[in-house]
Structure formats: structure tokens, C-alpha cells
């Protein structure tokens, strides 16, 4: 029998349900009979901690004369698409742990299957985005109904993978505290892959980094927390009062290389991917987490940062012409801009800016997708990373050769970072090798 999970909300969210009810009543007048919210938080043993709640945006078609089209409001793909956008913005260790629906009892009953399927797909995307499906990911999620008429709140915990009876739960409010896991990862991956789909950069990028991420998630990766080596079962912060920093733990990581570009190691080489990144990591976990929880959060953060940017880059790519260019193709991923979730204290959330984007664009995305009330550019930190200059774009080989010379961070940890993938077509080399073997 599944263990009952406790559901804790950050104390600052105590009045959230009242605000959501008022907002939903106003939207009901415009024809919205249900409003969905994403619960952003962390798993801690048999507990779910919620730090922030973001409203799923409503369809642009919603208006008072469009009442017959309200089924679009809880279209599974609509909800899941926005859930993925929210997930991209969250730090490792924090994910979507459930959804809240504000509506009448009848609508909730009618739409319950849609909500369950939305949760199930969201969990699946979370696992892929955070682990590349290399390891298990929490599958028990909260489903909350706030009755628009009676204002009563009903909460259940449902396992979206091992489907079984829902477990009734109850929201408890507490002064929750999260810890930021601070580290830096500089990596140069060179990986030969088969051609998967000439039009699917995202799939090929995933294949290119999978050996490295497999190594990252293995037991061979070493983590040192605040200058101490700790066993997985130990508490990350045994005594919060004795922390070196009030809400952060410094982490040193070491892992062996897992990339390969030797033609003989791949049966049908189509491309060589060179992925170079120097990433500032700010994963986040509840302060009562174990060392094992912290390790997972860091790994999830790194993988999610790479996959989120790759996904956004792929979505922005123009349709490629048939055939690959013989010369290396440079792909520069969008750079990070961050702000802090007020109720979480140390929860740093991310937006990703393309060349030409500004802090103003980040403000719009934070407010639209995370329901933040960010209003000034001073609240946005976009100094973490930079775009490549024209010289670097023209000579990508020089960037690869000198990847280890990327600038060191200063005391504020606002440093320059380059993140890109180099694709070099080596079909000609394969052909030569085959001919030599045949002769």
C-alpha cells in the first residue's frame, strides 16, 4: 500500500486560494468555466512542498461570445504545452508537483480525466526534460479542486504511472525553506552519432549528450558539499544554524569523460556533435533533503538547462534545406536571464533569451508563464552569460580548441558563458574508410 503523502504549501500562499477564486469568478463572466494552476515545488520523502503557483494561460480565443469553445480551455495538449514551458524555467530539484482546478463540481467531474491525463503527460515530460528517462522520476502528484460555488477545497494525491485509488490529502501551510546548491560545470563533449532524422536537431542533440548524461547520473560522479564528502543517506544540512551561508551549499563535482568521436566506435556515423558549455548551477532542494536528493537535483538542473535550451533553439530553427553542408554548423543556444520567486526565498527561475532579446522580454515571460509580478529590469539578472561575438561565429574551431579558457566567475558569479553545439559532417571520411576496408 502506498504511503500517504503530506502536502505542504509555503506559508505566504495562505491567501492564494481566495485570490484564485476572485480571479476565476471574474474569468467566469468572460466564459471561462475552469481555470487551471500549476503547483511548483519539491518532493521530500513522503512530503510534497509547494513553493509557487502559476496560472496556466487561457486560450486567446476566450471571450464572452465563445462559450461553446470552452473545451479548448482544458485541452490536454494546451495544458501540457504550457506545463513544459513552466518546467523549462524551474531549477533542478523543483518541478510541477500537481495542478489545481478552480471550477464548479460538475465541471470538475466532467473534466477529471482530462486533468489526470494532463498530469500524466506533464510527469512524462518532466522525466524526459530532467533525466532523459535515464532514471525514475516521482510519479505521485497533487490534484486540487477549489469549488467555485461552495469555495470548498478537495485534495487528492494520485499516482499517474502506477494508476490506483487516489489518496485523500489536505493542504498544510508551513514556513518552508529551500537551499540553493551552487556549483559550476564546464564540459566539452565530442560525440559521434548515427543520423537519426535529418530534420530533427533536438533528437540528434539528445542522442549526442546521452552518453555524457548517463555518466553524470552514474555512481562514479563525485560530489563534495561545503568541503565535505557525505554518504547519500546523510542530511544535506544536519544543522541549519551552522550553515556557512544562510541559504546555499557550495558543491564541487568530478566526473569522468564519456564522449567519443572515433569512427570505429559507431557503425554508421552521420555527424559529430561538439557540445561545449560552462554552466553556473543553482539547483534547489528543501533544507531537510538528503545528500542523495541534492545530487539528483544538481543532475536534473544540468540536464534540464541543456534540454530546455535545445528545445527552444530547435523551435526557432528554420526548415533546413535538403542535404547537410560540408562545413561545421554552429548552433548558439539562448542565454539565461533569472529572477527570484518571492515565496521561495532562494528559488532562482530562468528565462532564455535569444540574440536581440532583452530583460523586457524576460519580464513578459516570467509574468505570463510563472504568474510573477516582475515589473522592472532591475529585478532581472541577465549577466550570467553572453552571446558569441562575430569572430567566434566565424571561427568555431578556435572556440573548441580554447574551451577550457572560458572566463572565470567573479565574486558575484555573474560571468560569461557560451553554450553551443558544433555539427561536423564526416560522411566523406566514412566513405573513404569503407573503400579502404573493401580494398
Automatic annotation (TrEMBL):
Protein name per its UniProtKB record: Odr-4
A GO CC annotation given for this chain: endomembrane system
Location in or out of the cell: Membrane
PANTHER family hit by this protein: PROTEIN ODR-4 HOMOLOG
Any single GO BP term: intracellular protein localization
InterPro entries, A to Z: ODR-4-like
Alphabetical UniProt keywords: Membrane, Transmembrane, Transmembrane helix
Family, as annotated: Belongs to the ODR-4 family.
Transmembrane parts of this sequence: 412-435
Top-level taxonomic group: Eukaryota
Keyword Transmembrane helix: yes
Stored Pfam families: ODR4-like (PF14778)
Amino acid at each position: 500500500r502506498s504511503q500517504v503523502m503530506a502536502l505542504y504549501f509555503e506559508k505566504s500562499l495562505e491567501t492564494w486560494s481566495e485570490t484564485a477564486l476572485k480571479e476565476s469568478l471574474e474569468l467566469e463572466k468572460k466564459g471561462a468555466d475552469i481555470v487551471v494552476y500549476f503547483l511548483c515545488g519539491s518532493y521530500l520523502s513522503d512530503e510534497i512542498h509547494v513553493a509557487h503557483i502559476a496560472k496556466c494561460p487561457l486560450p486567446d480565443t476566450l471571450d464572452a461570445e465563445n462559450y461553446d469553445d470552452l473545451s479548448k480551455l482544458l485541452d490536454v495538449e494546451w495544458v501540457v504545452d504550457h506545463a513544459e514551458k513552466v518546467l523549462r524555467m524551474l531549477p533542478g530539484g523543483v518541478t510541477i508537483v500537481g495542478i489545481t482546478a478552480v471550477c464548479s463540481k460538475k465541471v470538475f467531474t466532467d473534466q477529471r480525466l482530462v486533468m489526470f491525463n494532463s498530469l500524466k503527460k506533464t510527469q512524462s515530460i518532466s522525466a524526459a526534460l530532467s533525466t532523459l528517462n535515464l532514471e525514475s522520476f516521482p510519479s505521485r502528484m497533487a490534484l486540487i479542486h477549489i469549488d467555485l460555488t461552495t469555495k470548498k477545497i478537495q485534495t487528492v494525491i494520485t499516482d499517474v504511472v502506477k494508476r490506483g485509488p487516489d489518496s485523500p490529502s489536505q493542504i498544510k501551510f508551513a514556513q518552508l525553506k529551500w537551499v540553493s546548491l551552487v556549483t559550476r560545470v564546464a564540459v566539452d563533449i565530442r560525440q559521434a552519432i548515427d543520423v537519426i532524422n535529418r530534420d530533427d536537431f533536438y533528437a540528434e542533440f539528445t542522442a549526442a549528450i546521452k552518453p555524457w548524461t548517463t555518466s553524470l547520473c552514474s555512481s562514479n560522479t563525485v560530489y563534495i558539499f561545503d568541503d565535505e564528502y557525505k554518504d547519500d543517506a546523510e542530511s544535506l544540512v544536519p544543522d541549519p544554524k551552522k550553515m556557512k551561508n544562510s541559504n546555499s551549499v557550495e558543491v564541487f563535482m568530478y566526473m569522468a569523460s564519456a564522449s567519443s568521436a572515433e569512427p570505429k566506435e559507431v557503425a554508421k556515423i552521420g555527424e559529430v556533435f561538439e557540445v561545449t558549455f560552462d554552466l553556473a548551477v543553482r539547483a534547489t532542494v528543501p533544507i531537510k533533503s538528503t545528500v542523495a536528493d541534492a545530487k539528483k537535483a544538481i543532475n536534473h538542473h544540468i540536464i534540464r538547462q541543456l534540454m530546455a535550451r535545445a528545445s527552444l533553439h530547435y523551435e526557432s530553427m528554420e526548415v533546413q534545406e535538403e542535404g547537410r553542408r560540408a562545413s561545421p554548423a554552429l548552433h548558439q543556444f539562448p542565454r539565461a536571464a533569472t529572477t527570484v520567486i518571492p515565496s521561495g526565498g532562494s528559488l532562482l527561475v530562468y528565462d532564455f533569451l535569444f540574440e536581440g532579446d532583452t530583460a523586457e522580454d524576460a519580464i513578459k515571460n516570467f509574468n505570463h508563464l510563472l504568474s510573477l509580478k516582475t515589473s522592472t529590469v532591475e529585478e532581472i539578472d541577465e549577466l550570467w552569460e553572453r552571446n558569441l561575438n562575430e569572430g567566434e561565429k566565424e571561427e568555431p574551431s578556435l572556440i573548441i580548441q580554447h574551451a577550457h579558457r572560458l572566463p572565470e566567475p567573479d565574486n558575484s558569479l555573474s560571468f560569461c558563458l557560451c553554450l553551443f553545439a558544433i555539427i561536423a559532417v564526416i560522411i566523406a571520411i566514412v566513405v573513404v574508410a569503407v573503400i579502404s576496408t573493401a580494398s
